Amino acid sequence: MSRQRFHAILWSLHMSDPKEDEENDRKRNTAEYDRLFKIKPLYTEITAACKAHFQPHQNISIDERMVASKARISLKQYMKNKPTKWGYKLFVLADSSTAYTWNFFVYTGKSEFLSGQGLSYTSVVDLLPFPLLGGGYTLFVDNFYTSPALFGDLFAKNIGCCGTIRKNRVGFPQTELNDLPKKAERGDMRWIRRSKLLFIKWMDSREVTMCSTVHAAFSGQTVRRNVKRAGVWQTKIVTVPDAVVDYNRSMGGVDVSDALIGYYSVLRKTMKWYKTFFYHFLDIAVVNSFILHKELHKMRVDPGMTNPHTQKSFREQLSAELRGDVPAAPPPLPPSSQVCMPAYYGEDATKHRRYCRRCSEAGNKTVKTPIYCTKCLIPLCLTSKKNCFKAWHTSD
Predict the structure, then answer these.
(1) Residues 325, 295 contacting (CB under 8 angstroms)
(2) CB environment 357-371: b (16+ within 10 A), e (fewer)
(3) pLDDT 10s digits, 178-208
(4) Closest C-alpha to 90, from 231, 274, 277
(5) pLDDT value of position 336
(6) 89: part of which helix (H) or strand (E)?
């Protein structure tokens, strides 16, 4: 594809009907105006596809995701604790074990959340379509979402919850009798149980407060910590609540998904805000497909099966298939003959190449050749400057 053709396609990229866009623009500053109208067709299709092709495992997590942008638009948000501090904010529900993005929505501003429960409560409920998702899950969230009201309501719908909690949250027990001492040692903990809600304070390098509806307070688990004593670093075994262990193990689903997207993101500079979302939706689709590829690979029990694709090779294969120029598989090797003779793997010597056996054994594992031995059935170099074919058959 030429550069001009690529830019012509890029300039024409649009996800909605321009005439309908004009009608929506006339509704600006009214309640009927849809700020996400230009991305709605693909937006709804991607979220529906994410839910349709995978059912999450038991542990799920919810967190924010930032899509980098420097656009001067009111949709852009700032989050100081994120690696990408400026951009569009998405609320994402991901599977904890695979990092599959199962549901998400774009944050458009506080004016969209007028339920009276607050953004943290409403965003979690919106990401959990109970008729479709079902019950029996354990949800892990950070202290932005955790509240006794939310955890109690989700427990009534058969969804357990665990997360860090802010001590000034409404419903958090304010008691000095069961509080940690001012100079608490690492591993010290206190807890209070109110009905199905368990509140825990645990001292690590700093105080950690947790709330859970699915854990016991303590079952004897320990962790290793490096402690400096008399100027010498030592390893110390400290006790740890069950909720902290499971939280650290299962909370990172969205972060892992962000990392997988960031390795090979298709995001590119653009002057149109809706194109930024187009690139990100494409990233979500590709990474989710890659995760499904790995999950399907695990389900197969063929011991002779090859390893699954890496994300790079998966994207390369996907790109080739979308272009429609996937090279044909090398033809099957002919049956062994009685005489060692050189032959080509295919008609096109530039496509059908394999690593030379002799060069690989000599330590140079990057040399490929289109020639193989018809009797030994191994690839060997045969050029005017290098004759591994002869050297292989004449060596002792």
Answers:
(1) no
(2) bbbeeeeeeebebbb
(3) 888 888 888 889 999 998 999 999 998 889 9
(4) 277
(5) 47
(6) strand 86-95
